[in-house]
């Protein structure tokens, strides 16, 4: 056996002895690193109650739909609990937007072929009453499009309230997703 082979054999044995220690050290270091999600919904992953604290829109039932959407998203992550005490998510419904979605010429007047309905809302997480918000989603908007329904000989009508409820539920789901740390884009 040459001296080079002896040296390589000694290096291999030394490396083999170090591998378990390196694995143990990295396991201990990663277990105690203190990692937690940057945008966690609540401190220590506590379950949250959901309440509506401010509604600036009509129909007021839109606020209930936003809260239901937030509850759906929190329930998917096992972060929902019943009640209204703290820690909790405080939902604010700020605005309803509407704009025409396409124009059709009906006789003498232009007529919207559909309506885009959007709901703007935000959510805050508070750990205790009177405390500042732990998390704030910022304003978030979700849209839905309602088509014009025409009956024979009748003018087109739009089911505005149904569209508001659909957009509000979607806004709530986006708020909830943002609270649990998932990306949610405002439209």
Structure in words:
The protein is an alpha+beta fold and 187 residues long. The protein has two domains: 1-35; 37-179, Double Stranded RNA Binding Domain, CATH 3.30.160. The chain has three helices and seven strands, in the order H-E-H-E-E-E-E-E-E-H. The protein has helices spanning 3-31, 61-76, 160-179, and strands at residues 49-55, 88-100, 103-106, 109-112, 114-126, 135-136, 140-147. The relative contact order is 0.18. Residues 152-156 have low confidence and may be disordered.
Q: Runs with pLDDT <50, length 5+? A: 152-156
Distance between the termini: 73 Å
SSE run:
HEHEEEEEEH
- Tally of contiguous helical segments: 3
The CATH architecture classification of the largest domain is 2-Layer Sandwich
Please outline the major beta sheet: 5 strands, mixed
Summed over residues and divided by their number, the pLDDT gives a mean of: 79
Q: Per the principal axes of the C-alpha atoms, what is the gross shape?
A: elongated
According to DSSP, the number of beta strands is: 7
For this structure, what is the CATH class of the largest domain?
Alpha Beta
Keywords:
alpha+beta, Double Stranded RNA Binding Domain, two-stranded antiparallel sheet, 27% strand
Task: Note the topology.
Layout: H1 3-31, E1 49-55, H2 61-76, E2 88-100, E3 103-106, E4 109-112, E5 114-126, E6 135-136, E7 140-147, H3 160-179
Parallel strand pairs: 1-2
Antiparallel strand pairs: 2-5, 3-4, 5-6, 5-7
Helix pairs in contact: 2-3
